[in-house]
Amino acid sequence: MRAFGGLLMTTDSVHPDPNLSVLIELLDPTFEKPVKSWSFVGRTSITIGRANDQDVEVSDVYVSRSHAKLSFCDNRWILVSLGRNGVLVENKQVTDYPLECGCKFRLGSGGPFLRMQTSGEQSEGTHTICFDTFPVSMFALDEANLQQEVTQIAGGNYFQTLQEKARELRLRRNST
After folding, report:
1. Burial of 103 (0-12, 13-18, 19+ CB in 10 A)
2. How would you classify the pairing of strands 104-107 and 113-118?
3. Would you tell me how many other CB atoms lie within 10 Å of the CB of residue 140?
4. Which one Pfam family would you cite for this protein (predicted)?
5. Radius of gyration (Cα) for the chain, nearest Å?
6. CB of 94 within 8 A of CB of 79?
7. What span, in angstroms and rounded, lies between the C-alpha atoms of 88 and 96?
8. How many whole angstroms from its chain centre is CA 65?
């Protein structure tokens, strides 16, 4: 048996599936969209803090050098508070807390928010660009319509006036 604060857990399943992936996201405080993320595969322990030897390094005055730790035990992740400013989940200070996928937690009462995702589950907005691939033919130009629009624009008064101004400017530039 292993103890985390008030939680007692067996150590039968200390090691996660070697393919289990964990994504820790630093969230924008206003929109709660990820601004930075850290990805881990096959880990049983992930450290969070301000020091450069932490797995998740967060530079913030509310974050202790060694602030928190995620430990995989009994087929789930446990968030353990190690820092002076504590860890909050749902605005409640916790010493240890079993995390569900997508759970948000805060480092200190005024510190940054983080979110944990597992096994490739990603929150909305974590992709830089995401699009479906379409056959190229869907993007074909209507050549007849294109030619008609070019003729209409080139024959218009506004375009003709611009062309005349450009000629005048070239003549002035060449004569000086």
Report:
1. middle
2. antiparallel
3. 8
4. FHA
5. 29
6. yes
7. 10
8. 23
pLDDT at 142: 83
According to CATH, what is the number of the domain 21-119?
Answer: 2.60.200.20
For the stretch 9-18, pLDDT in tens is 434 444 556 6
For the four alpha carbons of 38, 17, 11 and 92, in that order, the dihedral sign comes to positive
- Confidence grade of residue 5 (pLDDT, cut at 50, 70, 90): very low
CA distance 37 to 29: 15
Output the six-digit token pair for 52: 């450069």
Cα(109)–Cα(89) distance, rounded to whole angstroms? Answer: 10
Reported as a single tens digit per residue, the pLDDT across 84-114 is 999 999 999 999 999 988 899 999 999 999 9
Q: What are phi and psi for residue 109, nearest 5 degrees? A: -70, -25
Beta carbons of 116 and 97 less than 8 angstroms apart: no
Tally of helices (H runs) and strands (E runs) in the chain:
2, 13
Please return the burial class of 55, using the count of CB atoms within 10 Å of its CB with bins 0-12, 13-18 and 19+: middle
CA dist 137 and 116 (Å) reads 41
CA pair distance 174, 170, nearest whole angstrom: 6
Tell me how many degrees the CA angle 49-37-91 measures, rounded to the nearest 5.
60
Return d(Cα 120, Cα 123) in angstroms, integer. Answer: 10
